[in-house]
From TrEMBL:
Name under which the protein is recorded: Peroxidase
EC supergroup of this enzyme: oxidoreductase
Keyword ATP-binding assigned: no
Reactions the enzyme catalyzes: 2 a phenolic donor + H2O2 = 2 a phenolic radical donor + 2 H2O
Cofactor: heme b; Ca(2+)
Domain annotation Plant heme peroxidase family profile: ranges: 32-337
Pfam families found in the cross-reference section: peroxidase
Disulfide bonds: 42-125, 75-80, 131-333, 210-243
Chief place of localization: secreted
Keywords annotated in UniProt: Calcium, Disulfide bond, Heme, Hydrogen peroxide, Iron, Metal-binding, Oxidoreductase, Peroxidase, Pyrrolidone carboxylic acid, Secreted, Signal
Gene: PER50
Amino acid sequence: MAAAKKHNVDLLLLLITAITAASLLLQPTSAQLRQNFYSSICPNVESIVRAAVTQKFQQTFVTVPGTLRLFFHDCFVNGCDASVMVASTANNKAEKDNPDNLSLAGDGFDTVIKAKAAVDAVSQCRNKVSCADILAMATRDVISLSGGPSYAVELGRLDGLVSTAASVNGKLPQPTFNLNQLTNNFAANGLSQTDMIALSGAHTLGFSHCGRFSSRIYDFGGKKGAVDPSLNGTYAKELQAMCPRNVPADVAINMDPVTPRTFDNQYYRNLQQKKGLFTSDQILADDTRSSQTVNSWASNSVAFNNAFIAAMTRLGRVGVKTTASLGNIRRDCSVFN
């Protein structure tokens, strides 16, 4: 009797194991991001997006930093789900209207909107490609158009169903962060310190505003006339000339004073010369835990490009929605279906 009972238990366990294994095998492959996700859905989607992005790029260079920053701000809040693109309504203040997102360039939004329109103009593709995936592809394309590396983008994201201004609070890295704060901020999104240093290299493109760093060039530490000692003295004077006292806080300044329109490793060379615009930039070269990586990439653009691609790929996986209960494909990127 005991032997028969044990035999029945063993059979039950075997059956449970078999059912579990079968259920895992039956999981749809779309639950995972993958390259060429749209090969049978919208075969030419990447070339369609690239053409739209290239046209926008030819109209204004702001397309590049605007799109790249939009992708980062999107992924770091609710995951890479295009929730940052949703417009506020009378009943909901959306992500894009949080103070940390008010400086996002309109050209970034417009790039995705125009690419989405180009994709949806193809009948086979209409309402089949998510805004989140279009943003991911457009980001890769602006990097390439500005001289950076091209890379295969993993696709299969759905667009998020929630977007609130409050959800942004505390999610994005700040220009005053030290290395521990930066590392912890990125770790919260499953990204390593190396990923953080690589993604910071995107500051080789685009611009910031005087109000974001004025405390470093005027009355630093509450001392009248003092300049942050971690800042190159000549560079500080150049910044003061571009951002005189009482200038509007939204006056734009190039992040990279040397090659602001080219994606390259100049950012790390700037840090070596104490020309990091933000405290959060300069600390990467000044802290011994990160300075070796900065020095390595300052002298090796190939190594930086490879690290950047790896970091962008991991960033693109943050908080993605791949099931209908969590997301869908928006007909209009700025409005929930």
